[in-house]
Specification:
The protein is of the alpha+beta class and about 140 residues long. The protein contains 3 helices and 6 strands, in the order ββββββααα. Helix 1 packs across helix 2.
Length: about 140
């Protein structure tokens, strides 16, 4: 997927989710006057639309910030996997809870911090997430 391409749109009814194998994506919504609000970034190893496994209609857009490589997983296969392997289902549930936690912090970041501290928080968050995913080298990350 090339950079700046839409992966999924608000209102879509996906029948599959994807694993972000390479690159950076973000979730955004159009706010008043057509201004786009980025709500969350995802890095390699994340499943940005895992919630679509249980929610029929997407409530936001997902787009490629950088060139990305995506691995699609049909919802039917994911459901079968979750039923057959409860530990995998638990891990997928944990991923959605981590995403929700990051989202809550993003709401506070946008609502309560001035621009310099918002950017500082975002850079620190991305660095820590890249380190946790094994994507960082020293003090740099993609």
């Amino acid at each position: 997927m090339p950079a700046d391409e839409t992966i999924a749109r608000e209102g879509d009814r996906p029948s599959r989710s994807f694993l972000l194998a390479e690159g950076v994506t973000c979730i955004s919504k159009l706010a008043g006057r057509g201004v786009r609000q980025i709500m969350m970034f995802h890095i390699a190893g994340d499943m940005p639309d895992l919630h679509s496994l249980h929610l029929e209609v997407l409530d936001s857009d997902i787009w490629a910030v950088t060139g990305c490589r995506l691995a699609y997983l049909p919802h039917d296969a994911l459901r079968q996997l979750c039923h057959a392997c409860p530990r995998i289902a638990d891990e997928l549930w944990r991923l959605t809870l981590v995403d929700a936690s990051i989202y809550r912090e993003s709401v506070v970041n946008v609502a309560q911090r001035q621009a310099p501290s918002r950017m500082t928080h975002l850079f620190c968050e991305m660095m820590l997430r890249a380190r946790a995913a094994g994507l960082a080298q020293g003090n740099t990350c993609p």
